[in-house]
Design the sequence.
């Protein structure tokens, strides 16, 4: 009988450990320090790249126009420079 209790306790410990290990951290607000990742600041960048389309419906298909692709590439590269990251290569997407 004691083997069952030991197995049950080990199983319960494994379940608790699995839950704790897979729980994501709480999101950080936009007023967090610049050195910390903030989901609110990141969504601002996502909306800037995606425009009004992204703000209204995230599941709509992207525009496949060369001008839109160049605008998104410019936005991403310019944000990289602002954040102190210098891209070493730029890639262009075929339309």
Sequence:
């Amino acid at each position: 009988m004691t083997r069952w209790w030991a197995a049950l306790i080990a199983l319960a410990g494994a379940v608790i450990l699995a839950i704790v290990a897979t729980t994501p951290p709480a999101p950080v607000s936009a007023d967090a320090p610049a050195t910390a990742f903030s989901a609110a600041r990141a969504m601002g960048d996502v909306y800037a790249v995606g425009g009004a389309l992204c703000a209204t419906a995230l599941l709509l298909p992207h525009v496949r126009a060369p001008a839109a692709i160049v605008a998104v590439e410019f936005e991403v590269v310019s944000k990289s420079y602002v954040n102190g990251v210098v891209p070493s290569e730029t890639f262009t997407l075929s339309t």
About this structure: The chain is about 60% helix and 0% strand. The helical segments are 2-22, 39-56, 66-82.
